[in-house]
From TrEMBL:
A GO CC term assigned to this protein in UniProt: membrane
Matching InterPro entries: O-antigen_ligase-rel_domated (IPR007016), WaaL-like (IPR051533)
Organism in which the protein naturally occurs: Arcicella rosea
Keyword Membrane: yes
Bilayer-spanning residue ranges: 20-36, 42-62, 74-93, 105-127, 139-156, 197-217, 224-241, 247-264, 271-289, 372-392, 404-421
Recorded GO MF terms: ligase activity
Identification of the protein by name: O-antigen ligase
Membrane topology recorded in Swiss-Prot or TrEMBL: Multi-pass membrane protein
Domain O-antigen ligase-related: 231-377
Keyword match Membrane: yes
Record key words, sorted: Ligase, Membrane, Transmembrane, Transmembrane helix
Length: 463
């Protein structure tokens, strides 16, 4: 009965997505991605996020049928983005398990693309102007406020009834309870999301997004206080995620923005606040100091006493992945080969994959084993095209806000790459590329605004 209740909620969200336009539709979509966990099948074998992404794609096609080709042509990363799709299709064609079955090839190769890369294009087209982006950011950060409030409830009560209900309904393991019990040596929260480490990445994106509103945009005093409170709540949640990779990837992103995105006065202020906050946490919260020290030990050969990988273990995983890669180096072994053929499971007791692979704690291993050189090259080209695009905006910008926003996006990209190569993707593609799609349209809008102002000034000078 409860399963039907969640299905009705899902259909209700899709209906609201269909009725809404632009920012409102984007808000409903991201609400679904953020608040409906992805580790359980919502409809038979259909995972939640795939259902919402597929629904958004269908709505987009229905609403934009007459100018669909025009929208694709106007997408700034269309060629490298399309190359990723072609790469997955080639990998699936070469997958001996699919036996050249056209339907399976589309479902596997196209399905992986839909799950992870399609949203960058869809969300790009849900924003029209930079003002739309600001409005979308405000709504999304309010969602982060709700996530952090429930996360604080998790901290205080050591209970996550939402995930318990969903786990009971769909008969899946309650990972929230597992991690809050401290069985891996740490108490960790996940709020409305399916996994603490994934939640840590989501929170990192929220912190970086908040910088746009708090530093680059002039807000009313009351609004600024609201978003400062949300930022504080998000930081508290991140500390209780108690995971290294989200923490260090966020630090890297913040450093990029600090060094390249702020003027000297703001650099000094930002640095002073960061040092002050870190000093308070290190001296007054012993567990935070212990966590930082143990995290730094990860980079030693012995590793830290926290459960996870040392440098030595990473090298073992890489050697094992390269061995499988050598069997089919060009096209890889196919989508989901790690789970279906090597027997990997996120639940250790159900895992039959070789112990050398441990937890497959890097997206690199998935690329090597499943996607081969075709996937590696196509996705590398895509990532490089994003970076060159963002750097181009940084170099050619005539306004401070466009330059700052481009650098903020570089910080987000670096944070994302460090995370997926540091601990695996864990479903982060859909949230990162959704945000990236929004940001790309924001940058395009700022560029057109600059060009219009330059043309206007030139016309005045001609007169």
């Amino acid at each position: 009965m409860e399963g039907y209740f969640f299905q009705l909620i899902a259909f209700g969200i899709v209906y609201k997505m269909y009725q809404a336009v632009y920012v409102e539709r984007l808000a409903w979509f991201l609400f679904a991605i953020l608040f409906i966990p992805d580790h359980f099948p919502l409809f038979s074998t259909t995972i939640a996020s795939r259902f919402f992404i597929f629904s958004l794609m269908c709505i987009f096609i229905l609403k934009n049928y007459n100018n669909l080709i025009k929208k694709i042509k106007s997408f700034p990363l269309k060629y490298s983005w399309g190359a990723v799709l072609i790469g997955f299709i080639i990998t699936s064609i070469a997958d001996v398990r699919l036996k050249l079955d056209f339907v399976k090839i589309i479902l596997w190769g196209g399905g992986f693309f839909l799950d992870n890369f399609l949203v960058v294009f869809l969300c790009y087209n849900l924003i029209k102007t930079f003002d739309d982006l600001i409005r979308a950011y405000k709504i999304i950060l309010l969602f982060f406020g709700v996530l952090s409030v429930y996360g604080i409830y998790n901290i205080v009560t050591r209970d996550n009834f939402y995930m318990s209900i969903i786990s009971n309904v769909y008969g899946v393991r309650d990972l929230a309870e597992v991690y809050m019990s401290g069985r891996d040596g740490r108490f960790r929260i996940s709020s409305f999301t399916w996994h603490p480490i994934y939640y840590g990445f989501v929170l990192g994106m929220g912190i970086l997004m908040s910088l746009l509103l708090l530093i680059s945009i002039k807000l009313k005093t009351l609004s600024k206080r609201v978003y400062l409170c949300i930022l504080l709540g998000v930081i508290v949640n991140l500390l209780f995620v108690n995971s290294r990779t989200p923490f260090f990837s966020l630090i890297a992103g913040l450093l990029i923005f600090l060094v390249f995105g702020l003027d000297l006065q703001k650099k000094l202020r930002f640095t002073f606040i960061a040092i002050g906050l870190s000093s308070i946490l290190l001296t007054s919260v012993p567990k935070f100091s212990e966590f930082v020290n143990d995290s730094l030990d990860t980079f030693s050969s012995k590793g830290s006493k926290l459960e996870g990988s040392s440098v030595e273990m990473r090298n073992m995983q890489l050697d094992a992945a390269l061995l499988i890669f050598s069997k089919n180096p060009v096209t890889g072994n196919g989508i989901d080969y790690i789970i279906t053929n090597l027997g990997f499971s996120s639940e250790v007791e159900n895992r039959v994959s070789d112990s050398d692979f441990a937890g497959f704690e890097s997206y690199l291993y998935k690329m090597l084993i499943e996607q081969g050189l075709i996937g590696i090259v196509s996705q590398t080209v895509f990532i490089l095209s994003i970076m060159f695009y963002l750097v181009g905006h940084t170099v050619r910008s005539k306004s401070t806000i466009r330059k700052q926003f481009a650098i903020l996006n570089i910080a987000m990209l670096c944070c994302f790459l460090l995370f997926i190569f540091g601990t695996g993707d864990l479903g982060t593609f859909k949230i990162y590329f959704s945000i990236l799609g929004i940001n790309l349209k924001g940058l395009e809008s700022l560029k057109m605004k600059e060009q219009a102002m330059l043309a206007q000034n030139a016309a005045i000078l001609d007169v």
